[in-house]
Amino acid sequence: MQFNNFDIDIFLRDYWQKKPLLIRNPWKSWANPLDPDEFAGLACEDEVESRLIIQTRKTMKVEHGPFAEKRFSKLGKKPWTMLVQAVDHFVPEVATLIEPFRFIPNWRIDDVMVSYASDGGGVGPHFDQYDVFLVQGLGKRRWQVGALCDQATALLPNDDLRLLAEFEATDEWILEPGDILYVPPRIAHNGVAVGDDCMTYSVGFRAPARSELIAHWCDQLLANLPDDDRYEDPNLQPQKNPGEITANTVAELHAMITAKMADRDAFARWFGQYNSTRKNPDLSWQPEEAVRAERLREFIIDGMPLRRDPASRFSFVRRPAKSVWLFVDGQSFECTRETAAFAEKLCAQDHFTVDPKLTKLDAAMTLIVQLVSQGSVTFDQED
After folding, report:
1. Is residue 33 located within the same domain as residue 83?
2. Closest among 22, 29, 21 to 3, alpha carbons compared
3. Which H/E stretch holds residue 369?
4. How remote is the C-alpha of 119 from its chain's centroid?
5. Taking every annotated instance into account, which residue ranges of this chain make up the domain JmjC (predicted)?
6. What is the distance between the alpha carbons of residues 315 and 105, in angstroms, rounded to a whole number?
7. Three-state SS for 284?
8. Which positions ≥6 away from 82 have C-beta within 8 Å?
9. What average pLDDT does this structure show over 117-137?
């Protein structure tokens, strides 16, 4: 799927992380990528994260999946909403919704959540800590946006939903199939289905918190520090007051910490691995049979397309001498020369034919074998 009339430069300059924007059906040709029955089937799967929200006059009740098929026939007339997370990981057609938004770096992309609601259904007024494009797939939904929120904003007492205690709309629109509403982080918003068969796709983006980065980066450092890496003072001099921690001592202790934490290359490599870890790492995507380099060479020579798995995450960091660190699903790979060019193309395109020249490069074939073996890419034999 691609946009027909959308100015990326104006959007990034005037709206991205600044203010909401209603985008009336910008697609070349909009077609809802997921059948409602298939959506309901996903909510019944064990490996899929799903929630059902049923509204009453005073409360919202949340049930967590997987759900039995008979649950859908017992929903009654009260407004309800079904939410399924990371649908793009399981349905390739939904994954294509991300492609028009690739002007935002890959490492920022999270997933596509899909909601299906009956008339009046919604999740209530709330705010998120991330950017989101709300794409209307089927039916209609009334969206309202409000003020900028923060950690001091009052919330209702609800363990499952972070609902605003007070919400005042500043703008309101009704979205129809193909329409998009962009909502920046921390902007209050509320969506309510207008009629039945309301399906909305939430293309969400990640933004790591400072506390998250510090905590996980420190965990990485601690795991690799030997116990005998300790403070030393072989040139110790007598002090007038033994109770003083001198300025030099504080500087040396502080340097012990910052010298490790300030290693930019080590941080870049750690972050690439950390950020590229799959959303559902416990799920196995590996092929059932062992991968043989000879067989993959045949695929490449025959022009069989290479396709990224929708659940995999790809990114890279440029290094000196035209080399790159490639990060795929929590793993890092050092790539040079032709292999580096292949790695960059792999991050830019989800489906392409591999240059047959790479079959003669051991480094390139080793990389491809590893990526196929871990289930990150596959050769599209149907093509």
Report:
1. yes
2. 29
3. helix 362-373
4. 29
5. 93-222
6. 9
7. coil
8. 39, 40, 43, 50, 51, 52, 53, 115, 116, 117
9. 96
Tokens 């709300």 belong to residue = 134
Is the pTM here over 0.85, yes or no?
yes
Residue 289 to residue 61: CA distance in whole angstroms: 45
Measured from the Cβ of residue 290, the count of other Cβ atoms closer than 10 Å reads 8
The CATH number that applies at residue 333 is 3.40.366.30
Classify 17 as helix, strand or coil.
coil
Alpha-carbon separation of residue 114 from 41, 86, 121 (angstroms): 13, 8, 14
Q: Which domain holds residue 252?
A: 210-233+241-262
Q: Residue 157 pLDDT > 70, yes or no?
A: yes
- What letter would DSSP give residue 70? G
Is residue 212 exposed (0-12), middle (13-18) or buried (19+ Cβ within 10 Å)?
A: exposed
Looking up residue 55, the CATH number of its domain turns out to be 2.60.120.650
Span 40-88, pLDDT tens digits: 999 999 999 999 999 887 788 999 999 998 898 888 889 999 999 999 9
Q: Report the alpha-carbon distance of residue 332 to residue 322 in Å, rounded.
A: 17
Q: What is the tens place of the pLDDT at every residue in 185-215?
A: 999 999 999 999 999 999 999 999 999 999 9
| CA torsion through residues 39, 85, 181, 30, sign | negative
Token pair 């259904």 in the structure block, residue: 121
